Amino acid sequence: MNDTTHSVTGTAPAAAADTAASQRPRFLLLPMRSSCASERIYKWTLPAHEGQLPDGRRYNACPTAGVCVDLCYAKAGHFQRGTVLAAHQRNLQYVMDDLPGWEVQMTQELQHRRYRATDGSTVHVRVHDAGDYWSLPYLQAWLRIFRSAPHVTFYSYTKQVALLEKWVRPDPPAELH
Ligand code: SF4
Fold first, then answer.
1. Per-residue pLDDT tens for 18-34?
2. How far is the CA of 61 from the centre of ligand 1 (A)?
3. 102, 113, 118, 119: which has the highest count of C-beta atoms within 10 A?
4. Where is the Gene product domain (predicted)?
């Protein structure tokens, strides 16, 4: 993958895009279970690696994945259950079809009080329980989002090493760990 291409092919039918828009959740981030009751962690998830959206478009949400594909926890079990996979594919479809709209919604959502701890702790957001920074525009949207929410600590694991070396390392957002 180069820096300006992404890993999704095909064109969304307008009706399918309208349907996806009507199914968008109020909150894009889901709470994660934590062993520490006072710790608040939320997550954003895409489907892992390759697949096909309900409208027929094929995708690769982990374009630089290697041997990890064979061991990927998100390629089996709970992640592949119908409703779970469908929700993750809707997330991917949203960023594919309306990245500016998704960025606005995510930016606004992070200002909600549930992302502001009142006890001196910090709310954490895990970016990509599965999936990765699959395109440069998508990564750049996240970089703007990180900087818009200094009250949140973001963290993520990635195989997009070259992309982050070029676009993040020179000026890393303080919010990303
Ligand atoms: S990058 Fe992560 S989510 Fe993607 S295939 Fe590898 S282990 Fe799975």
1. 556 666 778 999 998 76
2. 9
3. 102
4. 45-176
Distance CA 52, CA 104 (A): 26
CA distance 139 to 117: 26
Q: Give Cβ neighbours of residue 4 (< 8 Å, ≥ 6 apart).
A: 136
Probe residue for ligand 1, chosen from 62, 64, 75 as the CB with the greatest number of ligand atoms within 8 Å: 62
Are residues 141 and 47 in contact, defined by beta-carbon separation less than 8 angstroms?
no
Predicted TM-score (pTM) of the model is 0.87
Collect all residues with Cβ–Cβ distance below 8 Å to 72 and sequence separation of at least 6: 48, 49, 65, 130
From the alpha carbon of 128, which atom of ligand 1 is closest? 3
